[in-house]
Amino acid sequence: MMYLIKFGGSVITEKSNKNAVFKKSIMDKLAESLASAGKEYVIVHGAGSFGHVLAKKHDLNNGFQSDKQRIGFSMTQTKVQQLNTYVLQSLQKQGLPTVSIPPHATISLNNHVENEFQKEIYNKYLSKGLDYIKKIQK
Fold first, then answer.
1. φ, ψ for residue 66 (rounded to 5)?
2. What confidence tier does 135 reach under pLDDT thresholds 50, 70, 90?
3. What are residue 58's phi and psi, to 5 degrees?
4. What does each C-alpha distance from 45 to 13, 38, 71, 108, 119 come to in angstroms?
5. Domain ranges in the chain?
6. CA torsion, points 58, 60, 66, 67, in degrees to nearest 10?
7. What is the CATH code for 2-135?
8. Nearest CA-CA partner of 132 in 93, 94, 87
């Protein structure tokens, strides 16, 4: 049996903080718990203060509406990737073979509704014994 585990953005970051603040000690404890569980899982995590502050500033929650949003999208994606790296490092420090699959590479939405989902890459990683993290921004 495989488990889906979501680390909410407010659990692993100071979500209300305007600065991107990672709760490293909490993530390290979560990683330690996962390592000792001996289960198969897929991890999903939120963006917290690494994504929501910039997404709101550049009005990204309402979809692409103007060329001005491009830099905001780029900056938001960079910050969320930084958070994802921190999460990966915590998990790998516990000996967990995790990789990251960004959702924008496999999922397309139309008005916040799934339009297309390419699951092949997920199955490829799982078949090699690698757990993966799927970043989700809401």
1. -155, 160
2. very low
3. -105, 10
4. 10, 20, 23, 18, 18
5. 2-135
6. 70
7. 3.40.1160.10
8. 87
